[in-house]
């Protein structure tokens, strides 16, 4: 196994963790309907449900909360955030939102007409929901390698397949494609990055046909690290410089500040188009708040501005990615199947290979996530057929090629010792995997069913 430097921070404040009994865990998973989203936080020993809003903030961020300007309009913290976003992202205009979902809603509502198409390098749940809600059809244009979990020697499995994108443009015309949603990194592919060369090629093709390039920038710092680590010509460039070059090829972005901005709340929408900016300002007033706070407190904007500057520090982001590598290497050494190469925010277990005795319609990823909690108290989440949802036209299940369980590592929260516990628990479960039974829905919401759906064992 690789050798890694220890955590690049000192612990100043601690939160107790409690390990509950087998009996209480069994009662908890039954009460939650085998849905890890419905478990109570207090019943989870190590919580790897998500990296969204779960970061530990720094001493400087906590200090920043104390200078929150809570004015209803014109908060000083908004101007600080605007300055930092321009410096690190390079876009002209900023609309703060309560989280990334608010930015997705504004972008989709203002740019999509019924009958449009939105290509993207693999779907994301809430993003596709907003696109479809406004009448668009999502088209996956990611490279084929992204759908092959055990293919390890592809450094940029998040890349757009330019031929697929060109085919869509030829079939429907550029006027039917308001923008491409370019995720950096690609969450559901396993946190896989996009190369700078691919970003440039996408930009050139889209702009040739009048199509905007809008990034899902949620984990853009992780993507910049992978470019520095894996793409020739970038090894000596700073993370900040790589970020600026990445975004220079696009027209705007949606951002969940709850990930790479290292905050527990917030997000924003960026763009270079002044007309779109003015429309977005009008819409944010209707649904979020004044354009100078967008549903956020001043202190939240201050913490986000500071978090952006901290996120590009090399020691921080190198440790962030290496912690995922450490967990992945431990699991891989024991033969546990997963998406490779390891991504930037999580390890994605290959649930179909982990549980070959279950058919995909028996929801193997959901079953595996529940089993991990049952045996260890570690909360993870399903990213497979349940998350994929149903086709809005046919009502049939989307059947993704990737059926995974995501072990999502919060930023600056857990140590390598915690990763050892997680690895040991999953390795032991893998040895006894035949005992895991499939699941079926007993309650299925109409949209975003993975959040609140309930299941029972088959």
From TrEMBL:
The modification N6-(pyridoxal phosphate)lysine is found at residue 259. It is an enzyme of class 4 (lyase). Pfam families: Beta_elim_lyase (PF01212). Its EC number is 4.1.99.2. Its cofactor is pyridoxal 5'-phosphate. One of its GO terms (molecular function) is tyrosine phenol-lyase activity. SUPFAM superfamilies: PLP-dependent transferases. Homotetramer. This is Tyrosine phenol-lyase. It comes from Pseudovibrio axinellae.
């Amino acid at each position: 196994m690789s050798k890694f430097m220890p955590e690049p921070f000192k612990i100043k404040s601690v939160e107790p963790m409690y390990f509950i009994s087998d009996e209480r865990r069994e009662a908890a998973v039954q009460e939650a309907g085998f849905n890890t989203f419905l478990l109570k936080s207090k019943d989870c020993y190590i919580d790897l449900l998500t990296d969204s809003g779960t970061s530990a903030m720094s001493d400087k961020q906590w200090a920043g909360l104390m200078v929150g300007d809570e004015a209803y309009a014109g908060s000083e913290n908004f101007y600080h955030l605007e300055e930092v976003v321009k410096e690190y992202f390079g876009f002209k205009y900023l609309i703060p939102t309560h989280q990334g979902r608010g930015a997705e809603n504004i972008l989709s509502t203002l740019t999509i007409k019924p009958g449009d198409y939105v290509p993207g390098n693999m779907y994301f749940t809430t993003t596709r929901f907003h696109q479809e809600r406004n009448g668009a059809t999502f088209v996956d244009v990611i490279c084929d390698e992204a759908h092959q979990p055990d293919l390890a020697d592809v450094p940029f499995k998040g890349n757009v397949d330019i031929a697929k994108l060109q085919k869509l443009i030829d079939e429907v015309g550029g006027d039917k494609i308001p923008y491409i949603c370019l995720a950096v990194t690609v969450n559901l592919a396993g946190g896989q990055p996009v190369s700078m060369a691919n970003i440039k090629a996408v930009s050139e093709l889209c702009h040739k046909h009048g199509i905007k390039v809008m990034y899902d920038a949620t984990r853009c710092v992780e993507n910049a690290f992978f470019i520095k680590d894996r793409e020739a010509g970038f090894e000596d460039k700073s993370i900040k410089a790589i970020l600026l070059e990445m975004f220079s090829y696009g027209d705007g972005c949606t951002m969940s500040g709850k990930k790479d901005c290292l905050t527990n709340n917030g997000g924003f929408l960026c763009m270079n188009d002044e007309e779109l900016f003015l429309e977005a300002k009008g819409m944010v007033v209707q649904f979020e708040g004044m354009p100078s706070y967008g549903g956020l407190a001043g202190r939240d904007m201050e913490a986000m501005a500071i978090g952006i500057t901290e996120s590009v520090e090399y020691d921080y982001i190198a440790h962030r990615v290496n912690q995922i590598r450490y967990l992945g290497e431990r699991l891989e050494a024991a033969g546990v199947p997963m998406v490779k190469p390891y991504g930037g925010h999580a390890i994605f277990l290959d649930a179909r290979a982990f549980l070959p005795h279950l058919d995909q319609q028996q929801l193997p990823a959901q079953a595996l996530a529940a089993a991990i909690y049952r045996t260890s108290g570690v909360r993870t989440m399903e990213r497979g057929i349940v998350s994929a949802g149903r086709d809005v036209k046919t009502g049939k299940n989307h059947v993704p090629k990737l059926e995974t369980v995501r072990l999502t590592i919060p930023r600056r929260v857990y140590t390598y010792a915690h990763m050892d516990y997680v690895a040991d628990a999953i390795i032991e479960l893998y040895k006894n995997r035949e005992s895991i039974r499939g699941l079926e829905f007993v309650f299925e919401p109409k949209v975003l069913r993975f959040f609140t759906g309930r299941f029972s064992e088959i």
